[in-house]
Amino acid sequence: MWTRWMHRALALAALADGSTSPNPLVGAVVLDASGQLVGEGFHARAGQPHAEVGALAQAGAAARGGTLVVTLEPCCHHGRTPPCSEAVIRAGLARVVIALEDPDPRVAGGGIAQLRDAGVEVITGVLRALAIEQNRAFLHRVQTGQPWGVLKWAMGVDGRTALANGASQWISGPPARAWVHQLRSQMDAVIVGGGTVRADDPLLTSRGRRQPEPLRVVLTRSLDLPAQAQLWDTSIAPTLVAHGPDRQDQALPDGAERVLLSPCNPTELMRALAQRGCNRVLWECGPELAALALRQGCIQEVAAVIAPKLMGGNPARTPLGHLGFTAMDQVLSAAASGVQALGDDWLIQLRLDG
Amino acid sequence: MWTRWMHRALALAALADGSTSPNPLVGAVVLDASGQLVGEGFHARAGQPHAEVGALAQAGAAARGGTLVVTLEPCCHHGRTPPCSEAVIRAGLARVVIALEDPDPRVAGGGIAQLRDAGVEVITGVLRALAIEQNRAFLHRVQTGQPWGVLKWAMGVDGRTALANGASQWISGPPARAWVHQLRSQMDAVIVGGGTVRADDPLLTSRGRRQPEPLRVVLTRSLDLPAQAQLWDTSIAPTLVAHGPDRQDQALPDGAERVLLSPCNPTELMRALAQRGCNRVLWECGPELAALALRQGCIQEVAAVIAPKLMGGNPARTPLGHLGFTAMDQVLSAAASGVQALGDDWLIQLRLDG
Q: What torsion do the CA atoms of B324, B328, B330, B333 make, to the nearest 10 degrees?
């Protein structure tokens, strides 16, 4: 009975995908006492009204005796906006239908308890699996203290990500490159290592698809970075240089912010980015840093763009450095995966186990 | 008007795919004077009747005044069987519809000329592109003196074909491995290098899907081969060891046949296999031999099985050795390509340019 409206609420929530960090995606619909749709809302951005508030405002007096269908448990704490549980009670709703309990320790069932205490009927778990999938980045960050990591690379069918001399522009075609810009627009940060800055001088933006652009991050133990690079033009997008304690006196190009990691590794970078409110980050780094991020559990999804090309061999670059496996039953395998065409190229996506 | 029957003739021809070498695939239908189907035939195997002969035998007297629809120009030479052009004329057909002229220098329009000289109407080029595609291996062998080469490998999404210690069983799942057995059943020969024999001790058969099994070929400059190997059991399938002139005094395990190549390289092997009547061969070799075969133009198609796994890095094996490219516009790119699922794995197939 409620799944139809929960699908609608999930679709509303998805409108802000990539824009709500550190908050979750939330969508809500309000039905009046006769079951007619009278209000819709979604959470657009941190600091802006929660989904329930927008939907209730639209519904007005028609909400009285009605039903709120919402993808996440209404909050019960004073954050940048007042608690939604109170707004729901004040609106006189008879019933609240929830997909997923909020794992935020400041909520964690408290919103549901407040509603029930006030005599509101609460139904939970409607389309729960879809709601978990939609908010997997937020949930992962709340549960682990680290953003959800996506590792992306482009390669020929023979598994090469550059020629022996480093040439790699362009392996994939315009549709695949546009897809990568779209992918970046869903990210709070895009991460490379110093080697990628030196070799490719990347821009790393969504080409305007996201405003503000995702934070561009360089993880570099050595701080051996070129004086001139597209990343230093921070009028386009912010840039953060993450380095270790032995380099803290070394100067950086103007514009770039810096963060000290101790030790300087992917896990510490993930903690630092989570503290800055990043729910989801994209790794576009070289093979050694990618392998290290995988080994440290910083990668939850892989997006491999495969071009119908043969690039050839040693010593050309490959996607991943050594992972230390000695038997085929140890290798990282996908819990779920899929393929789609991007122009002449293909995109294979893996969701990693565990 | 004739395309419907030519599709039927092409479907008949395809029934023998992989079994007719060194001959082409040919299918034929006979229609009587009123256009009714009265005979069907296909060429099953070298030494057995040509497609036209079977179809005409089935049609009997009903062929008189009728039409033969055949995928390849009828032969006009005495081979292991008498010329089909004469049989067609003798049957009293009014018309012959042909998809493709036979490029065999012993035919090459001669069959068509004989028919026209005898007063038979000849229509050519019906579904010609499909006929070329169906017989691409035969046509390539006739035109170049070398079999059509297919290069196959299995790898993780990160482009690795083995772990650093050489472990590779199994990268792909049972459906993909069954597909490889099926692929071998369409091949006249399956080629590996000595390194693959030493590392994997492969069986290289179609698991009974082809009778006889394809010829198993080891291309080895060094003749450094293990004394015990599955390839030496030639009761299952024949095995040919191809080596260079400096090893001709070296003994081989019992059972294996040998061929001397001078020089010992992929091109010379292709010439030797073409002379043995191979139209189509499968390369299942390691990266260095694969790269050499590519560089020498011995590969026309690539079949890459991609498993949803991350295997990790240097020094793990990759599909292809060095191809010598220094700019992205030099790399081998596909004229046509496609992807399909094989269980949890994917199959990407490339047809190479030129």
A: 110
